[in-house]
Amino acid sequence: MTTSLHLSSQLAVNVLDARSLLAAFGVLGVGVVLFAETGLLIGFFLPGDSLLFTAGLLCTGSADRGVKLSLGPLLVVAAVGALAGSQVGYLLGRKAGGSLLARSRSARLREGADRAEELLERYGYAKAILLARFVPVVRTVLNPMAGALNVPWRVFTVWQVVGGLIWTLGLTLAGYALGSSVPNVDHYLLPLVALIVVVSLLPLAAELYRSRRAARTDGTRDGRTDGTQDARTDGSADGRTGAKATER
Q1: Measured over all CA atoms, what is the biggest interatomic distance in the chain, rounded to whole angstroms?
Q2: How big is the chain by its Cα radius of gyration, in Å?
Q3: pLDDT tens digit sequence for 178-222
Q4: Which residues of 72-86 are buried (b: 16+ CB within 10 A; e: fewer)?
């Protein structure tokens, strides 16, 4: 009877709710979810950021949800799931090309693919792969996109490992640190998760602001240069015309 109840609770899990996933599958579920979110296009809707933060929080035992995780295994499983998923996504994109994304009917997934391609073109491979880890949906589609665009294997692997470790370890340890220092912090979990998602988007927002500001500066400088050159050209032409008129 107990086994059947446990099985039914697992089958009734809400895949969009981090606490529900952790209660049903524990540490192993974190690795599976991160692998699916970063390696398989069908996992673009999964809650990677909130899952990592909530899992770190539950390692402190401060939450009253009856779930207690171990920090060491959690860090290892989260990192392995995220890194392996990204590598698999890259290999799928390398093998299948853009057909994987072209066949998708999800508008959100296609929008993420456009943003991923824009990141690769604007910032170059290394910075784009690093930044994509912190943007939901984009971190799902950038990996097969990088494979389809023939991003060098070594470059992709190095930077997806760097970004994956910063993302998984950073969010998990942030949840653990907060849960260790603030009593009953799980009562404020939803606003905290929203805050974490916003903070995770700050690197991308900063890069977009910096690049747009640089583009405006370059455009202004080019406009001034062109205007000065045109004025000089017009002035010289007018001077030569006037001189010819005087001679006549």
Answers
A1: 113
A2: 26
A3: 878 776 666 666 576 666 667 666 666 666 676 677 777 766 666
A4: eebbebbbbbbbbbb
